[in-house]
Amino acid sequence: MAFGTQDDADDVMNEINMTPLVDVMLVLLIIFIITVPVMKHSVNVDLPRATNQPENIKPETVRLSVAADGKYYWNGSQVSDEELQSRLQAEGAKQPQPDLHIQGDKEVRYERVAQAMASAQRAGVRKIGFVTDPQ
């Protein structure tokens, strides 16, 4: 054995030896194959049967419009502030509650729309939406 010369055995390996990795994976596979049936303890439960039918009750939609001069229109007919509050109270007590769609004119003061929303909230109306014009 001479110093300073390199053998073929001293060369650096450029490839990973896959044999130990494959052996470990096969052992793990065998362990999982054996343990899965052991872990599968099931308890039989007699669950009740129920029918699933969709609910066909659709709430009505109430359209509240606020004109440019600040007047309220309930589904197209003009209402006063006091009458608006009483109608909102009646709609808030219904089950299921109707959807309230508020449509404000672009020239109306926001205060009038906010008053309508506050009245709806005091009346207990939970479903409030806004109708806008895309143009």
Structural description of this entry:
Helix content is 36%, strand content 16%. The protein is an alpha/beta fold. A 5-stranded mixed beta sheet has the order 3-2-1-4-5. The mean pLDDT is 84.
The N- to C-terminal Cα distance equals 93 Å
What percentage of the residues does DSSP assign to strands (E)? 15-25%
Determine the number of helices (DSSP H or I, runs of at least 4 residues). Answer: 3
What percentage of residues falls in helices of 4 or more residues? Answer: 25-40%
Kindly name the structural category: alpha/beta
The CATH class label of the domain at 61-130 is Alpha Beta
Largest sheet: 5 strands, mixed
Mean model confidence by pLDDT: 84
Strand segment count: 5
Task: Evaluate the radius of gyration.
Answer: 37 Å
What is the string of SSEs from the N terminus onward?
HEEEHEHE
Give the helix/strand layout:
Layout: H1 19-39, E1 61-66, E2 72-74, E3 77-79, H2 81-93, E4 99-104, H3 110-123, E5 128-130
Parallel strand pairs: 1-4, 4-5
Antiparallel strand pairs: 1-2, 2-3
Helix pairs in contact: 2-3
Features:
single chain; Nucleotidyltransferase, domain 5; five-stranded mixed beta sheet; 3 helices
Could you give a quick summary of the protein structure above?
36% of the residues lie in helices and 16% in strands. By secondary structure, it is of the alpha/beta class.
